[in-house]
Amino acid sequence: MKAGEDAEPFLGRWQAAGFVQHSTAFASHRLDQAKDVYLRWRQSKYALTRKQLLLGLGTVFFALVLLVAANRSSSTSGLVASSAANGVCSNARQNPHNIKAPLRPDVQRLTAFWPGVKHALDVGGRDIPKLDKPDYTYSPQGPTIWEFRARTDQLTPEQALKTRELHADFVRAIPPYPKKTFKGKGIVMLAGGRYSEYAVTALGVLREIGSTLPVEVWRRDQREEKHDWCREIEKEGMACRRLSDYMDTDLVDVKGGYEMKVLCLLFSSFEEIVFIDADNMALQRPELLFDTKAYKETGVILWHDYWKYDNIDWLDYIISNSPTRNENLWNETTHESGEIVWDKRRNWDALMLATYYNYYGPTLYYTLLNFNYAGWGDKDTFALAFRALQKPYHTVIAPPADAWERDKAGTRRIGMLQMMPGSQPPSATFFHVTTVKWSFREFVCEGCLPIWHTDQLGDAFVSYWEDPTSDLWEFLHNNLTLIEPGIDKWMPALPGTDDVPLDPEVVMWRAMEYGACRSKAWRHARTCMVARRYLVGTFGFSFVRASKPGVGVMEGNGEAWVPGMGEESCLIDPPIGRRRVVVR
Ligand SMILES: *[C@@H]1O[C@H](CO)[C@@H](O)[C@H](O)[C@H]1NC(C)=O
Ligand SMILES: *[C@@H]1O[C@H](CO)[C@@H](O)[C@H](O)[C@H]1NC(C)=O
Prior knowledge:
The chain is an alpha/beta fold. It is built from 20 helices and 13 strands. The protein has helices at about 10-15, 25-45, 50-70, 75, 105-110, 115-125, 145-150, 155-175, 195-210, 230-235, 260-265, 295-300, 315-320, 350-360, 360-370, 380-390, 440-445, 470-475, 505-520, 525-540; strands at about 185-190, 215-220, 240, 270-275, 280, 300-310, 335-345, 395, 400-405, 415-420, 430-435, 540-545, 570. The two termini are about 45 Å apart. Residues about 1-50, about 65-90, about 550 and about 580-584 have low confidence and may be disordered. The chain binds 2-acetamido-2-deoxy-beta-D-glucopyranose (2 copies). One 2-acetamido-2-deoxy-beta-D-glucopyranose binds near residues 327, 328 and 331.
């Protein structure tokens, strides 16, 4: 399916029926502002002559024209800060921080370094040995030491030596840091295909928690674009990037796509980057990471995974870290790469080396690093680069903590919590979801179609809400939260409070409501209703009509009003500390 054909069918029907979507919540804030101007004018106690009245009305009209004009030009020039007129309908998603989307990049300047890097990659890859990806061999205890050692035979001493020499060739050929190429601090997220659905939540969460960093959302190429979404997120200080504009994407493995992460870091216009996976939710503003001692000292922050290394024992020898093969790494803990903080200026050499490991990852380095028992891909290539260069880097000391699925503590992990470096007691800064992906489409789609060209068009799209055999069906249908309680001890304080733990589910549903109901690119009428009923019934969210700003009237005689997708409304958070947990 091509981009542009992927609009939701129900959206089309609404439009065909002559239904006109109300102004977006954003535009309604514009009107609030205009109304403010009007009210202030009316409240002035002067008796008005007819002339003054006309003059006043003229001013109001002029203000409106200006506001409409500002709104029109907002996608290119950034936004005028919108003031929630009354506080009732304040919504972080309307960009009150006036975050500018990163400028359209000068691709020519940003890719000037690439031929040199490509040359070094070729020099370090001549007749490079290959290893097949190991079969998936998960077992609860993990592979035995005998299995580890048996694997080492896949590489002969001659091949190991050849790989070591090529590695050294590449290190010698690393081009210098390209000055005046990258600029500023920002967030990089890799989306595309199904991952774009997850990114709708993760990007929303970033703004919900108050991050003001500009964001680049990367995809492989045009095929992976969702109609109009890129234009929509510009209003929130985010911009889409296509890797195919920067390099020949046929060079990277289409199936796994693990090599794309490092390439996004490389080509991003930002110099200092927080990379975040599309299925990873920031629980604290990522900009805080740049202020940590860890980052200031090394210019890099990595996080551990759960498992120990299960690498082929030639690895240290190959990276010239040891004159012989050894098992040293097997006692060390691996990394995950759902979040990476990187200063390209200070760590360009390590980024180059990580690029090398990923470029030859699917055919060699991923298998040198991982048994494919618990992960295989880019995850450990970043730390390996620092190990090879014997350069200091920071891995967060606190191990990841677990978030379990409701009623499945200890058996079904729903996500991993990664901690803020140096926080004591450890305070989670990322919630990297694993088995269950937090996207409104996965959770509550009702009658949705598959939308990506990679989906089998003949297959129905079945959400958890529609699948009675899924674990989550019962929870979603009974207004039950999905995460097992007990994660509060890791949670940062809810912004604006001292000690109320942030509830990640509340934040994620706020972002998912936006996707299901308000985003022009993603919304879907029936799904929106399912989502809204669930978040009202489960968490105590409520709605007020946006056409009555400041009044905050609850519709329906005190009963919760659940507006349909087309009804202009503000989403009101559950009362702090009184989150409703429905017990069976
Ligand atoms: C790894 O740890 C085990 C158990 O503590 C120990 O017996 C072994 O010598 C260690 N190996 C290395 C290479 O440090
Ligand atoms: C869940 O909450 C919604 C909204 O309050 C309500 O309409 C629905 O009946 C509730 N479902 C159950 C099973 O209680």
